[in-house]
Design goal:
single chain; 321 residues; alpha/beta; two-stranded parallel sheet; 41% helix
Length: 321
């Protein structure tokens, strides 16, 4: 790893999310949950109002709750994960691979409505131990977007503040990065595709040169380990407005071997649109088949946009005049 990449990777990293949220964060989560439930009810009663056929779901950890320990951020328990997938299947949603969505983009052939892609960022070991058996049972394809610098590691990801707090009180698999052999086993099933999430999951805002070096390192590892020549890619943290997947980094991603660049902008996807910038819908433990149908049916995306606009106004109000 070059000095430029190492210097970025050694910086304090943007946290995945607060594992112990304050009052304001709890109120915001409650509001977003209420919006999602309302959207789910609308979807169940009146159906989808989405004008795009594709939704991409973003998962992170799939780990059971440990008694006496706060739930980790961006986690879905295996029970919730299974219920979410089966709930969508019962509502007529169809899970397809990310490569199928990309082929539709390049061929111009339309995708059926209610097409859904599953992705996993970071890739904790629980993707193999907890999520993969459910994917196999349901025949559901998924794409693993790996932080290649931590493959085969035994310590928590540097950005996983929850794990550093509770190491020793939770099973190691709940925070340990996925292992190469586990990825190979999943690839052999034909259900799983492999991509990258950079090498170290660092914050590359203003550091496009280091970002390109990391992408080269990560792509080389994925090619050598799994035979993937043009890997799908997702930005760490992934928000466009905050610059974590902004125009400078997006243009840099285009110059790599990546076949797409996914963000965490809450939006449905037009497969005809350039896949460098496709958004995704983050899934939470509280989501159900109904709330996800609401999100995938176009009943929810206005709420995160409103939240962002309010945040921008708050920031503007604090700025010196």
């Amino acid at each position: 790893m070059s000095t430029a990449v190492a210097s970025i990777a050694d910086k304090p990293q943007v946290p995945v999310g607060p594992w112990r949220p304050g009052r304001k964060a709890r109120l915001q989560e409650a509001a977003m949950r209420a919006v999602a439930r309302f959207g789910g009810a609308c979807s169940d009663l009146t159906g989808s109002r989405a004008d795009q056929p594709l939704g991409i779901l973003a998962y992170h950890r799939v780990a059971p709750q440990t008694p006496g320990v706060p739930a980790p951020p961006y986690n879905a328990t295996p029970r919730a994960f299974r219920a979410q997938l089966t709930g969508l299947l019962k509502r007529g949603y169809r899970f397809i691979s990310l490569s199928s969505a990309l082929r539709a983009h390049h061929s111009g052939e339309p995708l059926p409505s209610r097409s859904v892609v599953l992705t996993f960022d970071d890739c904790f070991e629980t993707v193999f131990t907890e999520a993969f058996p459910i994917l196999q049972e349901l025949g559901t394809p998924a794409t693993l977007l790996l932080c290649t610098g931590y493959l085969d590691g035994d310590k928590p990801f540097p950005f996983d503040t929850w794990a550093f707090e509770y190491t020793g009180r939770v099973p190691r698999s709940h925070y340990r990065p996925i292992q190469i052999q586990q990825c190979e086993s999943m690839l052999a099933s034909g259900l799983i595709e492999i991509g990258t999430h950079t090498h170290t999951h660092a914050d590359f805002r203003g550091h496009s040169e280091a970002f390109l070096e990391e992408m080269e390192v990560s792509a080389e590892i994925v090619q050598r380990s799994f035979g993937v020549d043009a890997p799908p890619f997702s930005f760490p943290f992934g928000t466009v407005a905050d610059g974590l997947a902004g125009p400078e980094l997006m243009e840099a991603a285009r110059s790599t071997t990546a076949c797409c660049a996914l963000t965490t902008e809450v939006e449905l996807v037009d497969p005809a649109r350039d896949p460098f910038g496709w958004g995704r819908i983050t899934v939470f433990d509280w989501d159900t088949g109904s709330t996800l149908a609401g999100k995938l049916g176009g009943w929810y995306d206005w709420a995160p946009r409103l939240k962002h606009r309010l945040k921008q106004r708050q920031r503007a109000g604090r700025s010196p005049r």
